[in-house]
What we know:
By secondary structure, the chain is mostly helical. The chain has two domains: 1-33, no CATH class; 36-98, Trp Operon Repressor, Chain A (Orthogonal Bundle), CATH 1.10.1270. It has six helices and no strands. It has helices spanning 8-19, 23-33, 36-53, 58-65, 69-81, 85-98. The longest helix has 18 residues, at 36-53. The mean pLDDT is 96.
Amino acid sequence: MNSKLKDKYTDQLFEAILTLETVDECYSFFEDLGTIAEIKAFAQRFAVASMLTEKKTYREIHEQTGASEATISRVNRALNYGADGYKLALERLNKRSKE
């Protein structure tokens, strides 16, 4: 965990997110929390992470998501050297979809 990120306000934000129970509740919360562009950027990065784990090429990912090579590279770096947050979330989503 990145110590530069962790503080009481970030803890409170993440605790609030964990209280949300439906996708609609998430839409409401995140619409109030951030701009459409910020939310779309997070969604795009998560889609890129998913496609990278599926071994899609940078070109395929760019064509499907519009993500820049820099964004794809940044997400790839996070997948390979990051805190494993993408991997954990993707594994849980894949497990959930198989149930």
